[in-house]
């Protein structure tokens, strides 16, 4: 799960998906991670508002931001991202990777409410983080149902 900085949207999506997988007892089938297309926040914890939003839904995460690697394109079956800018960057990076096996898609393509883009809440407020959480929950549920 990829966003620009890996401190807001993608760690929320990662934590939500991991919880869904755990609740469904499918941990043995999924390796879940999140990353950034940029190197701006490498090593940082998620935004405090993202952590607070997740805690409000009973989810904890110990994620530290990292940048996507060439190996990710060879290792993961899916790389799901948040917006068109992420999608462009990922497609460009994947073209430089020999043996890329990852299917690169917008996470929002799985949203039953058809909200294709998951907007960056960084400059918003708690309500915007809650919106991201709800979108990620809908999309991750639909993705999980479709893919196994």
UniProtKB/TrEMBL annotation:
Instruction: Provide the Gene Ontology terms for cellular component.
Output: cytoplasm
**Reaction(s) the record says it catalyses:** a phosphate monoester + H2O = an alcohol + phosphate; O-phospho-L-tyrosyl-[protein] + H2O = L-tyrosyl-[protein] + phosphate
Q: Where in the cell is it found?
A: Cytoplasm
Q: Which residues form the active site?
A: 9, 120
Per UniProt, the keywords (alphabetical) are:
Cytoplasm, Hydrolase, Protein phosphatase
Superkingdom to which the source organism belongs:
Eukaryota
E.C. number(s) listed in UniProt: 3.1.3.2, 3.1.3.48
**Could you give a GO molecular-function term held by this entry?**
non-membrane spanning protein tyrosine phosphatase activity
Q: Which residues form the Phosphotyrosine protein phosphatase I domain?
A: 2-146
Alphabetized Pfam families for the sequence: LMWPc (PF01451)
* Family the entry assigns: Belongs to the low molecular weight phosphotyrosine protein phosphatase family.
Q: What does this protein do?
A: Acts on tyrosine phosphorylated proteins, low-MW aryl phosphates and natural and synthetic acyl phosphates.
Protein name, as recorded: Low molecular weight phosphotyrosine protein phosphatase
Q: Which organism is it from?
A: Xiphorhynchus elegans
Phylogenetic lineage: Eukaryota, Metazoa, Chordata, Craniata, Vertebrata
Name the gene. Answer: Acp1
């Amino acid at each position: 799960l990829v966003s620009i900085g890996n401190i807001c949207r993608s760690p929320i999506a990662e934590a939500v998906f991991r919880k869904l997988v755990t609740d469904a007892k499918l941990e043995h089938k999924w390796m879940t991670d999140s990353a950034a297309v940029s190197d701006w926040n490498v090593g940082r914890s998620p935004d405090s508002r993202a952590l607070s939003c997740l805690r409000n839904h009973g989810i904890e995460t110990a994620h530290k931001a990292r940048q996507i690697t060439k190996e990710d394109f060879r290792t993961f079956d899916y790389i799901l991202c948040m917006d068109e800018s992420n999608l462009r960057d990922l497609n460009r990076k994947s073209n430089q990777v020999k043996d890329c096996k990852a299917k690169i898609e917008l996470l929002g393509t799985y949203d039953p409410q058809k909200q294709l883009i998951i907007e960056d809440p960084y400059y918003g407020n708690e309500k915007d983080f809650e919106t991201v959480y709800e979108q990620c929950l809908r999309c991750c549920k639909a993705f999980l149902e479709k893919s196994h």
